[in-house]
Design brief:
100 residues; elongated
Length: 100
């Protein structure tokens, strides 16, 4: 593959009409803009990959913390039937007083 097809800055200049004094600068600006764009995409892709990797393979100390949190779930607490029901104070109304 000829090298003039790889980068537009090395293209042969036409004899007249299509080349100006700042054509090389404009071509380099486009290449720099594209390089910056691809660098940003690469940065965001790398950050997304790092976040995904942390959630899939946590470090051992984080795995231990997650396991300890799973052991303390509310499902292992006392069932609701064993909790004592407090009697309302004499000045409190029933919960459905407004329906009457």
């Amino acid at each position: 593959m000829p090298t003039f097809l790889l980068l537009p800055t090395f293209m042969q200049r036409p004899e007249f009409g299509m080349h100006a004094e700042n054509t090389d600068a404009m071509d380099l600006f486009v290449l720099a803009t594209l390089a910056c764009l691809f660098l940003m995409f690469g940065f965001f892709a790398g950050c997304g990959w790092a976040i995904w990797r942390r959630t899939m393979k946590p470090k051992p100390h984080m795995r231990l913390i997650m396991e300890l949190q799973d052991e303390q779930t509310p499902s292992q607490e006392k069932p609701a039937t064993q909790t004592p029901v407090e009697k309302p104070a004499p000045w409190e109304r029933d919960s459905d007083w407004w329906k009457k």
